[in-house]
Amino acid sequence: MAVTESSPPTHPTAAVAAPPGHDAHGRFSADEWLVLITLCSATFMCGLDFSIVTVALPDIGRALGFSSAGTLQWVATASLLPSASLLPLFARVSDLIGRKRLFTLGVAVFTVFSLGAALAGSPAVLIVTRIGQGTAAAMIAPSAIALMTGHFKQGPKRSRALGLNGAVMSLGFVLGALGGGIITSGFSWRWTMVTLCVMGVLALAGALALPAIHETSNARQMDVPGALLATLGLFGLVYGISTSGDEGWSRPAALGPILGGLALLAAFLVVEQRHPEPLVPLSVLNRPGVKWAGLFGVITFGMCAGTTVLLSLYMQSVLGFTALQAGLSYLGEGAAATLGGMYVARLLSRFGGVKVLTAGLLIQGAGTLAMVTLPADADVAALLLTSSVMGLGHVFSVVSFITVMTSGASEKDQGVVGGLSQLPQYVAAIGVSGLSAIAAARTSALASSATPSRSDILGGLHAGMLTAGATALAGALLVGAVLRKRTTA
């Protein structure tokens, strides 16, 4: 069927030089800037959503009368679960109805539910609106990446576009932590939702003004069994991982959903082998550049997200920083991510996605490992330096793993691959839960009484940071083994 949403097919191999007729230096035209700003704004908005709400949780709990901390955590979890579990479904829907249509619809839905969250008068209403925001994010994420990779051909322009997109993704999380603290302290938690609503209105205006681009797709039907199995499987997996910190990894409340989710995902792979139009074609999923780059995406997101949580605990529980001081301390990480996003396109053009991915994980791992030297007394220079190095490596890793995943994707597969490339950031909850569990276990082992001391807590945090750094470095070594000879990205 033919719709007017995306560009002609991309070439099957990654190009170092720009295609004929394209600016070799990756400079954008006015229309291309409109596309880039609109798509990056939506990405930034979705990244901002999670962190800005996380900072505001204590005030939300007091204002709306949440019964417990566990119940309050659902304000964040209610958005995360649909974002992760519905990604494959909406990646397929984008191929059926058109990527621009789904992107515009997603931004509109996100804006409406953000307004509803700002006006929520009870915990139930707020959680429902957060589910709506998460569902909208699942619409936006795959269609935005598919539009970006479809509009910008492989070469300097695409590399630069993906670099800027990766930078604003990281910056959204960092500024969310900072902005959430400032807005909540100076005004009210409701203004965090108003901020998201205003950003949604601006992104919607850009979406409506996006140029119509010809797109052809052979997709004619929805793989209903595959959609159900993928959605329920990812829901169980992410739910189990997200709640394992409270329930414990071995408890049935956490282990049951994880095992059930894995079983459903295994059944999903069996179903996909037989369906004439599978939700995720196994020919795509089995491409080394897709499955292996996706694994490295989980590593870079999981270890960075988990370490960021450990840093927050370090600053507030060990150093005694206020929430605002802790937020300001993330500015080095955000600045490094922004700088990296500006220059990663040049590195990709010169060295290729595989080498930049290796370097990114090495830099992220080195910065994280160096955090083991952070002392019990405030050393702002060391804190800013180590977090900045981690942030720089992270943005290199994010942009390059998405580049490797999307390189060579045919036009009909861009929606599916776009969804798969966004999934690691939501599955990264495994890093948060895993590193938090390691830190807690080490703290308990060091504590000589029921109440751990600052040095006990610091020892636990150092154990988590050591694990995160070692995992990132192991990922860097694995990149060369599984990708260097298998892809040209």
Short description:
This protein is an all-alpha fold and 489 residues long.
What would you note in describing this structure?
- With 489 residues, the protein is mainly alpha-helical.
- It has helices at residues 30-64, 69-72, 74-85, 87-97, 99-119, 123-151, 156-186, 190-209, 224-247, 252-272, 282-285, 288-318, 323-329, 331-351, 353-370, 380-406, 414-422, 424-427, 429-446, 454-482; strands spanning 2-3, 215-216.
- It is built from 20 helices and two strands.
Principal-axes shape call: globular
How would you characterize the largest beta sheet? 2 strands, antiparallel
Distance between the termini: 30 Å
Order of secondary-structure elements: EHHHHHHHHEHHHHHHHHHHHH
Helix content: over 70%
Strand arrangement, major sheet: 1-2
Rounded average pLDDT = 80
Per DSSP E runs of 2 or more residues, the count of β-strands stands at 2
| Class by alpha and beta content | mainly alpha
Tell me the strand percentage band.
under 5%
Q: What is the count of DSSP helices, taking H or I runs of 4+ residues?
A: 20
The residue ranges in which pLDDT falls below 50 over 5 or more consecutive positions are 1-24
Write down the Rg: 21 Å
Could you state the oligomeric state of the chains shown? single chain
Please tag this protein with its features:
globular, 2 strands, 77% helix, disordered N terminus, 489 residues, two-stranded antiparallel ribbon, mainly alpha
List the helices and strands and how they pair.
Blueprint: E1 2-3, H1 30-64, H2 69-72, H3 74-85, H4 87-97, H5 99-119, H6 123-151, H7 156-186, H8 190-209, E2 215-216, H9 224-247, H10 252-272, H11 282-285, H12 288-318, H13 323-329, H14 331-351, H15 353-370, H16 380-406, H17 414-422, H18 424-427, H19 429-446, H20 454-482
Antiparallel strand pairs: 1-2
Helix pairs in contact: 1-3, 1-6, 1-7, 1-8, 3-6, 3-9, 4-5, 4-6, 4-17, 5-6, 5-8, 6-17, 7-13, 7-14, 7-16, 9-10, 9-19, 12-15, 12-16, 12-19, 12-20, 14-15, 14-16, 15-16, 15-20, 16-17, 19-20
